[in-house]
Amino acid sequence: MDYAKEFLEKIHEDLLKTRMLEEKLVETYAEGKVPGHIHSGVGQEASYVGVLATRKPGDYFKIGHRVIAATCILGNPLDSFFGECLAKKTGNAGGRGGVNHTGRLQDGVLGMSGTLGCDAGISVGAALTIEANGTDNVSYFFVGDGAANRGPVSEAMTLAADWKLPVVFVCINNGYGISTPTTFSSPVPNVLADRAVGYGMPSVVVDGTDVLAAYEAAKKMVEYTRAGNGPSVIECKCYRWRGHFEGDQCPYRDGTVTEQEIAERDCLKNFEQVLADSGVMTAEQFAKMRADFDQEMNESIERTLVAPEMTADEIYDYLYV
Ligand SMILES: Cc1ncc(C[n+]2csc(CCOP(=O)(O)OP(=O)(O)O)c2C)c(N)n1
Fold first, then answer.
1. What are the beta bridge partners of residue 234?
2. Domain annotation for the chain: domains and CATH numbers
3. What confidence tens digit (pLDDT) does each residue in 120-140 have?
4. 18, 211 contact by CB (below 8 A)
């Protein structure tokens, strides 16, 4: 493979940690420790990790409600991640926001709006900041195939294209918006990429379960946008392994397809196979990394469980009236 060993090791580390964090959230939620509910991103990690491998300091990010562990590879420490997920004062938002609000401004992660799609405008605003500062940074906007159909996304794409702003629109197309298949909600199979030409943007469609393919596809678009040519679109095709929420029995889809996806398109397992076959890493290294990170996560969760919750008085801090 034509990549530096360190680069492949870093991609693997990000992929493994994202997977393990997403799995740990499922486990912690099942134990009743997470207030509210979670949207598991297990199985979709390579779409984020591959695209985000093109990042550089000073970039901005809008992460979606699934694969929230991506904020950790962007710099969020485990204690503030689990703190927010478990609604503790140690969380990114002091436990006010919960699982969907693990962003940190100092990492360029601009938080997330529960009103899906509206974040597109914030990403365009961040791109305007980049332009004003005269750097070659970009603003990444991640959106699901369902939310990509919303008006605010279209408006943001129109403005970004008109003003040639450095936004990289990334559609994580996992085939469903809750129980609605993409084939019901979009007349075209590639929800954002097939529409990109109408906004005057280049686009790529990639297998989002192949981390290196996602990286290569993203690199083309990100380089185009960093060079001052305006926004671009990346569409990562993947599959949502779990239900929309934990406990969703998924009566709207064929379970054998899910089983097949898990068996054949496991982004982590497949990448580890590639690394082992090419002699870059060994099964022993994978096992050790797993054991070490599992311990790190468990220790963080132990600390989080005994961390304080905010008091009733503090709930209203930071609210504008
Ligand atoms: C404007 C808005 N409408 C509806 C919802 C409720 N909702 C939460 S997640 C979701 C599904 C979104 O599907 P998609 O964008 O494909 O992302 P996925 O859940 O598949 O990752 C919906 C409809 C919302 N949060 N915001």
1. 170, 204
2. 5-304 (3.40.50.970)
3. 999 999 999 999 999 999 999
4. no
